[in-house]
Amino acid sequence: MERLEDIIAAHAGREGPLLPILHDVQAAFGHISEEAIRAIASALNLSRAEVHGVVSFYHDFATDADPRPQVKLCRAEACQARGVDALVAALDESVRAQLGTVYCLGLCSAGPSALVGDTVHARLDPTTLSELVEQTK
């Protein structure tokens, strides 16, 4: 709880602090708990419904902890042409990661690419992606 208070205090006085606080809480705890929603709402003088509405609107925020590594595959045309579907199939079989997608990671010439945790990786194949997921655990 002290860490949550520190995160909220770090954004005190900032204009539009809700999203930066939510991002920091998500990064620190891996999810945004009901307790965090209550504390953030109280600190920002918002209702819990307002904070919960923002958390539930954005796909990157989670209300439940999930210990699996997060993998976001680039689904832009270049990565699709370079075989991202093979990566989807490989991860679907293993179910060892939270699988998501992003429209473009900006590595079109080096696809298929993915965001594993906070790091972008390019020129992936099913084997290298599986190794990255294992290393992230």
User: SSE string, helix = H, strand = E?
Assistant: HHHHEHHEEEH
Which structural category fits the helices and strands? Answer: alpha+beta
Q: Tell me roughly what share of residues is in helical segments.
A: 40-55%
Strand content: 5-15%
Number of helical segments with 4 or more residues? 7
Task: Characterise the protein shown here.
The protein is built from 7 helices and 4 strands. A 4-stranded mixed β-sheet has the order 2-1-3-4, with helices on one face. The model has no long low-confidence stretch (mean pLDDT 89). It starts with a helix and ends with a helix. Helix 1 packs antiparallel against helix 2, helix 3 (34-44) crosses helix 4 (48-57) and helix 6 (84-94) packs across helix 7 (126-136). It is α+β, with helices and mostly antiparallel strands and 137 residues long. It is 50% helix and 12% strand.
Break the fold down into its secondary structure elements and pairings.
Layout: H1 2-10, H2 18-29, H3 34-44, H4 48-57, E1 70-74, H5 77-81, H6 84-94, E2 98-102, E3 114-116, E4 119-121, H7 126-136
Parallel strand pairs: 1-2
Antiparallel strand pairs: 1-3, 3-4
Helix pairs in contact: 1-2, 3-4, 6-7
Task: Write a concise keyword list for the protein shown above.
single chain, elongated, 7 helices, 137 residues, 50% helix
Short description:
The protein has 7 helices and 4 strands. The protein is an alpha+beta fold and 137 residues long.
